[in-house]
UniProtKB/TrEMBL annotation:
A Pfam family assignment: Flavodoxin_2
Stored PANTHER family: FMN-DEPENDENT NADH-AZOREDUCTASE 1, FMN-DEPENDENT NADH:QUINONE OXIDOREDUCTASE
Protein's UniProt name: FMN dependent NADH:quinone oxidoreductase
Cofactor note: Binds 1 FMN per subunit.
Organism annotation: Sporobacter termitidis DSM 10068
Signal sequence extent: none
Cited function: Also exhibits azoreductase activity. Catalyzes the reductive cleavage of the azo bond in aromatic azo compounds to the corresponding amines.
Cofactor(s) needed by this chain: FMN
EC number: 1.6.5.-, 1.7.1.17
Family, per entry: Belongs to the azoreductase type 1 family.
InterPro entries for the chain: Flavodoxin_fold, Flavoprotein-like_sf, FMN-dep_NADH:Q_OxRdtase_AzoR1, NADH:quinone_OxRdtase_FMN_depd
Amino acid sequence: MSQLLYIFANPKPRGESRTLRISDGFVGAYRDSHPQDTVIELDLYKENIGFLTQESLLMHNVEPGTGRDHPQLKYAYQFLESDKIVIAAPFWNLSFPAILKAYLDYVTVSGITFKYTSQGPVGQCQGKKAVHIVTRGGAYGQEPLKSLELGDRYLKTLFQFLGFQEFTTIAAENMDRSSTDVEAAVQSAIADAQQKAKDF
């Protein structure tokens, strides 16, 4: 049995967010095809994720196993103890909502999700896999805009740093172009997400 952590960062209601419609489709199909697994949903806006403080920075180099009840470190342990991660966030201003970066600062903790060794940092999330689900207003998956895309690139880099071996991106693009049939594009992305969820 595996544990899937479904993290979403969107202030819109779920039915109004194109990103969450796709990610909910993914997670729904995952539940159907993996009924024995545990799915934990984490709405970052409802969690009221804030920025790191001076106090919490002092907790960012801990002895393994300590600080489980700390209001921020609990997220790092939850992240570490999950086998699969789903991140759903829209593409905002060439990246993703700031609240997601704040959350990633919560979970990237030396002594929990990675450690420093004499050879340098080593990720502690070995054997885990992640999927990033995103909608974008333009075609940022290919040039000439690809080089401006900073959100998915950052997530891939960070997750590799933490030890993840598998990282998949499901992106619905051109959502804000006048020529796009948005509903058709969303439905196509949902179908793609549901298919990929079966083997996730």
